[in-house]
Amino acid sequence: MERVGFVGLGTMGAAMAANLVRAGYPLHVWNRTPGKAGPLVEIGATEAGTLAELVAAVDVVVICVSDTPDVEAVLFGPEGIAAAAREGTLVIDCSTISPRATREFARRLRERGIAMVDAPVSGGSEGAIHATLTIMVGGEPADVERAHAVLAAMGRTITHMGPIGTGQATKAVNQVIICGAYLGVAEGIVLAMRAGLDPDAVVAALNNGAAQSWVLANRSGRMVEDRYPLGFKVALHRKDLAIALDLARESGVSLPVAGLTAQLENGLIAGGHGDEDMSALARAIRELSGM
Predict the structure, then answer these.
(1) Rounded to whole angstroms, how far apart are CA atoms 9 and 34?
(2) Residue 36 appears among annotated catalytic residues
(3) Which of 36, 171, 233, 239 is catalytic?
(4) CATH annotation of 169-288
(5) Per-residue model confidence as pLDDT tens digits over 89-128
(6) Phi, psi of 259 (to 5 degrees)
(7) CATH domain 4-163 topology
(8) How does pLDDT run across 148-182, given as a tens digit for each residue?
């Protein structure tokens, strides 16, 4: 069993790392902001004092940080992975970042004898906790095969999409599609409430029909209550949409629903709601509807 390092212990990363410990991996962890490794150390992980110390102790490094510049800093900073890793190290990037940057990062790592796969995830905090994430993987077949056991400890559905960067491109498609799901449920819930219907009864009636979706089943209650505890931050989805909209421009594709969602999320972030769950899109629809 390969020794694994995990970099990035946020809401998603900490839960994913815990599942690697439970799967029996000798796990070393490191976070840019100190103080987050305690619960993982309690279940058997080892906290590294520096990123370079972590990299020197492992064969595989999993990254789960917020954005493209963060991944670049972890990979190529003064004490980053590229500087500290041995030849033959495998990097698995579970962050959601630019496909174009991913290809460039992989090229730079390859020059140092370090392999990389991109493996962004979908399934929210629930999926991270229960190891049921959907993982979209890009990379060379041999590298993806090597990464598979590590990924299987964190997710249920693992799909090799093609060369490096295709995992990130697939995640961009995912983030575009969920725009429609969240907006559709938000609009439907607000319409039901303003029309005098019992929204819980509406959800029960629709949940086994054509309108059924993960969002309807798992986030409609928050929209009814107008409470949006964290699952996946509005601000992070807005960041992901920027990646998707950039890919759309490169591909000559018009994304009107994604563009509308981006504007609604801009308003939520400006209003101080960027750290709420993405289901807070219902807050915007409520406000537009005078609720």
Answers:
(1) 10
(2) no
(3) 171
(4) 1.10.1040.10
(5) 999 999 999 999 999 999 999 999 999 999 999 988 889 9
(6) -65, -40
(7) Rossmann fold (3.40.50)
(8) 999 999 999 999 999 999 999 999 999 999 999 99
